[in-house]
Amino acid sequence: MAMKLSTPEWLDKVEYPFDNKTIQLQSGTMHYVDEGEGDPILFVHGTPTWSFLYREFIRDFSKTNRAIAIDHLGFGLSEKPEKFFGRPQDHTKNLSEFIQKKDLRNITLVVHDFGGPIGLAAAIKQPKRIDKIVIFNTWLWETESYKEVKNIDKVVRSFLGRFLYIWMNFSPRVLLKKGFSDQSVLSGLIHQHYLNPFSDRASRWSLYRLAGALMGSSDWYQSLWEKLEALEEKPWLALWGMKDKFLTPDFLHKWEQRLPDIETKKIPSGHFVQEEKPDESIKHIRNFLES
What we know:
The chain is an alpha/beta fold. The chain has one domain (3-290): Rossmann fold (3-Layer(aba) Sandwich), CATH 3.40.50.1820. It has twelve helices and nine strands. It is globular and about 50 Å long.
């Protein structure tokens, strides 16, 4: 059952003018936005973002479709349960439950960052509900062979890593900014909307647990890659930020090798294409839906 959620004082209703809804899942209370009518477009975020990342997309696509954007448990306006494991596998279970409870069909699935493995795993479980797939910078294969990932994992699992994530809110405060190729796009107001959901130490464990899963869930990612044939015949669109310093164009090349029919749009932005190039991204998705 969807219930209205009280709006936090820091939430700018001009930037994010949507009705806040919640749904009770087995693991906790999930916040989501559900605007418009028609075939659903389901937006799935990564870290350290939330449905706010897709605000311009919701505003635009709700004119012609049912635009749905969730906040993973531990993120955004969703509940932050203390005992929730918060691995990508756990977020996939929640998303699958959400899709089933809302009985979503003919879904255009839009994923980014950790939302890639989370959303695509849910799609692999119920491929008949999926119509089309749009990926922003993301992956779906093992990560432990990447030297950069091993180095990140070593830091994350150290005392310093835990201190930075839990005490200093390092992920939205520092790493988010580093993900922009044009940091002037990230105004103080917009940045606050990524900082405020993690206002105290207790609320930051979701960030830390996903950081640990970058390499910690490597075998699970690979198992999904090996099951991707369940979705290979769907129409795919990749919108790739070519200035992303971590999920580089090499990651896009791996997608193109696996999915030779994927439609690719190379966009001059960093990791957070939705913030840097929303209009261009919306145009490409709309053309994809209409083609």
